[in-house]
Fold this protein.
Amino acid sequence: MVDAGNTGKETVVIIGGGPAGLTAAWELAKDGGCGPDGRFDVTVLEASKEFGGISRTVKHNGNRMDIGGHRFFSKDDRIMDWWKNILPLQGAPSYDDKKLGRHHDLEPGGPDPEQTDAVMLKRHRVSRIYWNRRFFDYPISLSPSLFKALGFKLTLKAGFSYLKSMFVKLPEDNLENFYINRFGRQLYSMFFEGYTEKLWGRHPSEISADWGAQRVRGLSVMSVLKNAIQKMLPKKRDSSQVETSLIEEFWYPKLGPGQLWETVEKQCVEGGVKVLTDANVVELRQGEDGAVTSVVFEDAQGGRTELAADEFISSMPLKDLINAIDAPSKQSGHSKATKPVPAEMVRVANGLPYRDFVTVGLLVDHLRLKNKTNIRTLGNPQIVPDCWIYVQDPGYKVGRLQIFNNWSPYMVENPDGTVWVGLEYFCKEGDEFWNMSDEEHIAFAIKELTRMRVINGASDVRDSHCEKVKKAYPAYFDTYDQMPELINYLDTFGNLFCVGRNGQHRYNNQDHSMATAIEAVDNIKSGRKDKKNVWSVNTEKSYHEEKSA
């Protein structure tokens, strides 16, 4: 067995090199925390060779893909300041700002994106819905363009349906009722029902309302109307006054989200953190007192190493974590634990569902779509200004389109002459779509874009790339309703902290995952034993709707 430190310091093992794991590592390492005179000896175990988890940047032939799309925005000032300290905000116009004559509130003394890569860009959010070969605002807004696209009859039905929902409230014991209460049954059936089923593979009536409460809390027809009216007023609003789903400006690393996490990992190593890649944790061992004593990880060659520590921070999926607690070790013949995992907790963990996805990148000369907005774009005038296009039309399997040019022009080798499009497909690991080859996925994506009249056909495609992502989205059905029991069990391990999206089986945004790590580190530093603060991130209504003090 290897001691994580052997230096007399407090040893911490962090499982996972994604946003939560690396945030925890840097929180422990900064200000000399892992230096020669520091308090901590920290080791990060990352199962892959890359950092950032789903927030990584994929590089392909000079172009970059953002897996899932990551807006850098938070209503938690700690997180905004944290990001800005890693990659400072732009102090001069970016390439597309200059070409388009676009102006932002630039950061005084900030770096020039044209001169350095270590910079965070300010971006304008444009996202729309594609339905019935028409574009609608995202989130849905009661605008003249919506009424024109729907026609008089559907508009009337939607209006009366919404009025009914104001007075007749359904019990919010599932996601379907959650949406109906906020938008009315007609808009729900058009824009939420089919897309939600496409995303999760389950009808909204089978999904916990918790998902809606965390992802679109505070968003409704009334909030959309309020937001639209306030936008027309002369007084400029602070972002703390806008619902998270309605934020119109965000930050973005020049070279994609993975750039930030690669920078954090580098700073951690320079600060004294040991980072091991290809280190897949397969076992957690506990002592007679019930605390975790060590982890066993497997390297790329199948060799196993046991690593002892005082504290453990885990962002690995809860299903894998529970199955790893005192799992039999092939090499050591480790004896069975005095406190084996209760069979019920194993059942709950193994029943927790996930949604996986496949993303296909297509490099094309141009899009058939016409930019009918008043927002100017780079390159061919046919490129639309959207970051995301939500394909809520049930006639297509693709869930979202990303246009990487609009996230950052530096994501595309030739942003003036080509459009780099990402198509996101939601599926389940092992199903028919998941098991298709990369070539089949790419051919499928080209056919869908052609049928949507976004491109002319395969002849438009210059290059392509396919990425599969396991356990991208923790889902809120099956044994999810027994999560409180699982949390209570995990909290019996006083020195084990579960953080991040998969570490808590909660559909956290990037900032929420970081906040769970910050809370966990604060507990370790202060000696706080209960973990209510760690688990409560992204559960309180105020977290979304109010700026933290």
Q: What stands out?
A: The domain at 141-235 is CATH 1.10.3110 (protoporphyrinogen ix oxidase, domain 3). The longest strand covers residues 461-474. The radius of gyration is 24 Å. The chain has 17 helices and 20 strands.
